[in-house]
């Protein structure tokens, strides 16, 4: 099934009302990345407010707000902060800014346009978990983001928001912006920790969990950069306000990153629980000549949904009920002109390239799935290949060391569920092969 | 291992960012640093990192070969990366890559004969709202197509530095590696580099034009209401 979504010039009022510019609001102010402009736009007010409370009160407040992680897993933030034991050891806050999940593109604009919001959020979170050092692990390629974050750290330090005895509170904090070097796996939190310790980025066995045994084996809280940047807004606005911005069971706003076959791709910050139909309307409708066929609700590691799910509220629970995962709300919109088999082939190539090699199911499974896809796409597929793909996925899902292997199966199993005929079309010779089998060595 | 004094000083400055006894954390920045000198991670660079950190060369190499941004062969001044992941590919990324490959007469991870330009296909560059994207030394050139991408590399070939859609004015791969090693951008124009593309602002602009704002709040309201009684902030410490 495919759906044509009308694209009115201006979205209907009820749909426009879904827009909730909070995190993205300052992006409109050209100089907001500079301290003096940031301060004029409520900057560092939340920090002054937060420092008046005890750590326990701040954590209780964050739990009350219902704020959940924006990095994909949606873990309650207050609970994560509480897991860090209050035991007098060195504590660390590590901010995951290794944005690289295919489709995901909201953290880079955030860091480039509003870096001080990230720094302010870091100071509040570090204070709450009693960390005196925080690291931001920025994806290496995100050089403009790192550049502006480093500038923000310097400005904040010069103004007394970082360093010793912050604003006379007795609280000390150093923040280091650490650039990675190109490895998707380092977005996995324990691989990130190993990478930050100067090693290959490979995931660690859990338990023990980072909350007690994290960076340098010390208690560590790892939060996504979008999660952290929301903190100052929540502290200023209050728990009830943050909850009121979302929908039932889903507090706050979410930046939906629309890409693909819509007229105006981009970042749309809306109430959590906005539907794809509404998002496409906000984005001006589908591109001319394209009909919606499938989409990912939150990046390539979340199972694709067909056009039937156009009215599913995109929040944690409803997307799970529809058979997928909210993930990073990276909504990639594909049309009748985007072959799902080709899309999956390219994604699996990505997972094969990014597999760290630590565990066999992921390292071998992805490698062989690429070969099966290439055989199918070169017109030499066999009927058994679909079972082969399904069986590979069964051996990956739940049997890989970390979420990368699980994530890789999402597109394969979901596309086989919705679009089996597309695979059969290549196998049965109804569709022109994408490659020359001889050229790519498919057999 | 003839590294100039400046590199040694920079290495020291990197080490002090990490707690005492945890200096190995400096390895990724140090590898970016030697790349800023040599244009790739050379044997000398590996030996230098090993010496600075007191670890073996094998340990350094195990790390340097894990990450794609560390180049194993001398790279050009201009690293042209074309996203060919699913979404960019659907919107023409592969065609862009193929056109550049023809124009430059190099394949993936190869450098032109004159040593100036290295071409690579990249995995998702986190700019899907600007697909298909190309980066040069990690600065963004958005909404590319074959013609625009060809213009871009022809300008590079002619020694010009085309202005990126988002990011700082171009500097060489060696120069950008200094920033990757964690040193601040020294060019004011670098910090000023544009970050506000149309897609980035799409939602915020739509809301502003429609006069939509998030509901107002009282920033001074106490954080917690406990058992119905409002908890007052602790007295100033």
Keywords:
heterodimer; A: 443 residues; alpha/beta; Rossmann fold; Ubiquitin-like (UB roll); de novo design (two linked rop proteins); 3 domains; 5-stranded mixed beta sheet; 4-stranded parallel beta sheet; 9 strands; 42% helix; globular; B: 237 residues; alpha+beta; Arc Repressor Mutant, subunit A; Glutaredoxin; 2 domains; two-stranded antiparallel sheet; 10 helices; 41% helix; 10% strand; flat
Account of the 3D structure:
Chain A is an alpha/beta fold and 443 residues long. Chain A has three domains: 21-243, Rossmann fold, CATH 3.40.50.11540; 246-335, Ubiquitin-like (UB roll) (Roll); 340-440, NADH-ubiquinone oxidoreductase 51kDa subunit, iron-sulphur binding domain (de novo design (two linked rop proteins), Up-down Bundle), CATH 1.20.1440.230. Chain A contains 19 helices and nine strands. In chain A, strand 7 (292-296) and strand 8 (305-306) form a beta hairpin. In chain A, 64% of the residues are buried. Chain B is built from ten helices and seven strands. In chain B, helix 3 packs across helix 4. At the A-B interface, helix 4, helix 6, helix 8, strand 3 and helix 10 of A face helix 2, helix 5, helix 8 and helix 10 of B.
């Amino acid at each position: 099934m495919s759906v044509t979504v009308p694209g009115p010039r201006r979205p209907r009022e009820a749909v426009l009302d879904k827009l909730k510019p909070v995190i993205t609001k300052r992006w409109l102010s050209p100089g907001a990345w500079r301290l003096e402009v940031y301060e004029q736009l409520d900057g560092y007010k939340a920090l002054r407010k937060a420092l008046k409370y005890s750590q326990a009160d701040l954590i209780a407040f964050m739990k009350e707000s219902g704020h959940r992680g924006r990095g994909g897993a949606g873990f309650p933030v207050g609970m994560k902060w509480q897991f860090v034991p209050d035991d007098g050891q060195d504590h660390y806050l590590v901010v995951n800014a290794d944005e690289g999940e295919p489709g995901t593109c909201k953290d880079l604009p955030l860091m480039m346009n509003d870096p001080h919001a990230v720094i302010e959020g870091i100071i509040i979170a570090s204070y709450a978990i009693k960390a005196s050092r925080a690291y931001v692990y920025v994806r290496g390629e995100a050089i403009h983001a790192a550049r502006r974050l480093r500038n923000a750290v310097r400005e904040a330090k010069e103004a007394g928001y970082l360093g010793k005895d912050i604003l006379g509170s007795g609280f000390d904090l150093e923040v280091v912006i650490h650039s990675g070097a190109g490895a998707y796996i380092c977005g996995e939190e324990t691989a990130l920790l190993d990478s930050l310790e100067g090693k290959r980025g490979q995931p660690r066995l859990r338990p023990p969990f980072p909350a007690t045994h994290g960076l340098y084996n010390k208690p560590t809280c790892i939060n996504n950069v979008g999660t952290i940047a929301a903190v100052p807004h929540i502290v200023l606005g209050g728990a009830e306000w943050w909850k009121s911005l979302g929908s039932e069971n889903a507090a706050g706003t979410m930046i939906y990153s629309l890409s693909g076959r819509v007229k105006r791709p981009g970042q749309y910050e809306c109430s959590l629980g906005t539907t794809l139909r509404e998002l496409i309307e906000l984005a001006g409708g589908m591109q001319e000549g394209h009909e919606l066929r499938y989409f990912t609700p939150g990046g390539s590691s979340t199972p694709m949904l067909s056009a039937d799910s156009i009215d599913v509220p995109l929040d944690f629970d409803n997307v799970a009920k529809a058979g997928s995962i909210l993930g990073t709300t990276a909504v990639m919109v594909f049309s009748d002109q985007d072959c799902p088999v080709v899309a999956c082939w390219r994604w699996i190539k990505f997972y094969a390239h990014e597999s760290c090699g630590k565990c066999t199911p992921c390292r071998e499974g992805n490698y062989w799935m690429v070969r099966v896809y290439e055989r199918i796409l070169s017109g030499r597929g066999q009927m058994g290949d679909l079972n082969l793909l399904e069986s590979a996925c069964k051996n990956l899902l739940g049997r890989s060391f970390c979420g990368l292997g699980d994530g890789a199966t999402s597109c394969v199993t979901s596309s086989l569920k919705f679009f089996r005929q597309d695979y059969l079309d290549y196998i049965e010779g109804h569709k022109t092969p994408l490659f020359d089998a001889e050229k790519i060595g498919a057999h | 291992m003839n590294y100039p004094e400046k590199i040694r000083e920079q290495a020291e400055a990197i080490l002090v960012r990490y707690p005492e006894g945890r200096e190995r954390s400096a390895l990724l920045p140090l590898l970016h640093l030697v790349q800023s000198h040599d244009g790739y991670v050379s044997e000398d660079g590996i030996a230098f990192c090993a010496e600075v950190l007191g670890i073996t060369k094998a340990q350094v190499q195990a790390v340097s070969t894990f990450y794609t941004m560390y180049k194993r062969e001398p790279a050009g001044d201009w690293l042209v990366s074309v996203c060919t992941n699913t979404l960019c590919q659907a919107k023409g990324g592969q065609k862009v890559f193929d056109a550049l490959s023809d124009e430059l007469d190099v394949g993936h991870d190869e450098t032109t004969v004159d040593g100036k330009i290295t071409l690579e296909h990249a995995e998702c560059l986190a700019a899907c709202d600007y697909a298909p994207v190309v980066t040069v030394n990690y600065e963004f050139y958005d909404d590319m197509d074959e013609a625009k991408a060809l213009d871009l590399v022809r300008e590079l070939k002619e020694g010009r530095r085309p202005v990126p859609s988002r990011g700082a004015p171009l500097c060489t791969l060696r120069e950008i590696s200094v920033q990757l090693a964690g040193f601040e951008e020294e060019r004011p124009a670098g910090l000023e580099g544009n970050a506000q593309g149309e897609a980035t602002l799409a939602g915020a602009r739509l809301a502003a034009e429609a006069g939509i704002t998030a509901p107002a709040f009282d920033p001074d309201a106490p954080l917690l209401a406990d058992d119905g009684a409002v908890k007052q902030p602790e007295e100033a410490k």
